[in-house]
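Listing S7. Sequence submitted for prediction.
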Amino acid sequence: MRLAVHGPAGERSTSELVVARSTGEVDWAVDLVVLAIRAHDVPRALDSLPPLPSVTLLSVQNGIGTEETIRERRPDLALLAASLTASLELVEDAQIAWLRRGGIGLASVNGGDALIPQLASTFGRAGLRARAYVDWRAMKWSKLVANLVGNATSGLLQMGVDRIYTDASTFPIERDQLREAFAVMEALGLKPVALPGADIRALRVALALPAPIARPILRVAVGGGRGGKDPSLLLAMAAGADTTEVRWLNGAVVKYGAQLGVPTPVNTALTELVERTLVDADLRDRLRHRPPELVEAVAHHPPRTADADLASNPR
């Protein structure tokens, strides 16, 4: 298969790929296996892999929990974590639009350190800025915060991020979910880091500003940061998906907040509402394009029960 990538500056590159339809068709004499799938598909993918004692695994999932799952299920593998901030979109078969250049963060979770300089160099030659980090958890949590922006709210309302940040009624939900995430990071002893193309430290500063000032600033920053691509939860829910990444996104904030005694009422409400709308068409229709309904649902959501459920039953 010939894969074409249309770059953010109008450049075009093509690569020849060999596509295997099953793991049985793969020659496993390789140095690196990249897991570039949704977080909820990782356990099944790991089960499909043969023993690979000399291979390094690179996890590129959004959210929190993938690396922990890999270490539990495949402790034999060297493991690197990656956080991708480039915005890409599959426009048709074998055609990828690279919408925003962004970059990629790399960090060692369990060995594999020797590969990081080589990977960073390879990504750099392809035009993707790469940066190595000492603390993989700080890197992943920083990317988590970036992924939370306009994600659950746009999915629930089926509205673009720019409209979420234009509406004064939904901005407090956005602001508070992010503040909760930063509070959990602090309780974990993790400091936000600047990822290539996504410096959430600036986001934290903006969140401290009065809402009338912060909202227009963040609207411009968020819109440009996504390169015109809709958030993952909006795409999943618009496509009628029966599973989303919300448990690894907002749900991760809830899970660790419950363990550390950090209140996370807004993230709890958003997690629960996203999961309910997957099976409740009436709720989905009631929230669609109705910010006041979402504000009401978040304000009156009982956080304690959801916190307990997420903490005791992490997926």
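Caption to Listing S7: primary sequence and predicted structure tokens for the chain studied. Confidence is low (pLDDT under 50) at residues 305-315. The chain is about 50% helix and 15% strand.
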